[in-house]
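Final report, results section. Input specification for complex C-07:
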Amino acid sequence: KAGVTQTPRYLIKTRGQQVTLSCSPISGHRSVSWYQQTPGQGLQFLFEYFSETQRNKGNFPGRFSGRQFSNSRSEMNVSTLELGDSALYLCASSVGTQEILSEQYFGPGTRLTVT
Amino acid sequence: AQSVTQLGSHVSVSEGALVLLRCNYSSSVPPYLFWYVQYPNQGLQLLLKYTTGATLVKGINGFEAEFKKSETSFHLTKPSAHMSDAAEYFCAVSYTNAGKSTFGDGTTLTVKP
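Structure output:
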């Protein structure tokens, strides 16, 4: 099976702009989660989507949003970028059903730099 | 709120020595527990997980971890370090599915020749 893919791998944006990141999960996985990783804050949970619905949400401002499509692919959007949004954004997919615990498989991440 | 503490942000061992990375969680309810490894410029790779049952869990690359409920710990060990083990290691907890996991701050493992 192909792993989790994220595009683009690297991105440079200017303050005030918006950005959209994409994640394609492993085939058959219905849950997609997004995390932000920074040296200062570590790995922080952004949100999780399951079957096109947001199932869990972290403590991030409304500038951070996401969606999931019927094929389980997910996008996250950050509007009005701030310097502090510079980070590695990781996507993870899992089977996602509540009946069994399934581990997450992570993509390589998108490195976002805001200047 | 659930939290995870990894004691020691940097651990250095000699090649062939025991690796011990510490993880404690705070919860009155036993969580699901995970250890991940991250190499530079890469995503996270699952090393092992604890859900229920046997408290000693074996993972990939010779790593294992023991769940100790009384100590709320899930320390990661490897009997003999290899140069290729140098990476950052994260402990994580979850209480439902793994879709929403809380991660520790990470421990960077350095292996000296």
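The interface with chain A takes residues 32, 34, 36, 41-46, 49, 51, 90, 94, 96-106 of chain B (CB under 8 Å). Chain B is about 0% helix and 55% strand. This concludes the modelling results for the funded period.
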